[in-house]
Write a structure and sequence with these properties.
The chain is an all-alpha fold and 101 residues long. Helices cover 58% and strands 0% of the residues. It contains 2 helices and no strands. The longest helix is centred in the first third of the chain and has 30 residues, at 2-31. The two termini are 34 Å apart. The mean pLDDT is 77.
Length: 101
C-alpha cells in the first residue's frame, strides 16, 4: 500500500522534470547561436543595407506601470486562491480533536 501512495509523488516529479527539460530544449538553440562568417569574407560584421541608419530608442523605461500593477494584482489573487484551496483541502482531511478525559 505504501508503494501506491508514492505514485502521485513520482508523477509530480516526472512532470516537473519534463517541464524543465522542455524549457532547456527550447532555450538551447538560442544559447548556442553564433555568427558564421561568409566564405572568403572577414569575420567581422558587415552591413548589408545601403548605409548605416540612425536608430532612436522610443521606450527607455521598459514595461509601463499599469501593466506591472495588473500582473501583481493577478499573481496576488492567484496566490490567495491557491492558499484558500490548499487550506480547505487540508481541513477536509483533518480528524476531529478527541476531548481529554
Amino acid at each position: 500500500m505504501n508503494h501506491i501512495r508514492r505514485i502521485p509523488h513520482l508523477a509530480r516529479f516526472l512532470a516537473a522534470f519534463a517541464c524543465a527539460m522542455l524549457g532547456l530544449a527550447v532555450s538551447a538553440p538560442t544559447a548556442f547561436a553564433m555568427r558564421v562568417p561568409t566564405p572568403g569574407g572577414s569575420p567581422g560584421v558587415t552591413p548589408t543595407g545601403p548605409g548605416l541608419t540612425l536608430t532612436h530608442m522610443v521606450v527607455a523605461n521598459g514595461m509601463p506601470g499599469w501593466q506591472l500593477t495588473v500582473i501583481v494584482a493577478v499573481v496576488a489573487a492567484l496566490a490567495a486562491t491557491i492558499a484558500i484551496v490548499a487550506e480547505r483541502a487540508r481541513a477536509a482531511h483533518r480528524t476531529g480533536i478527541a476531548p481529554a478525559t
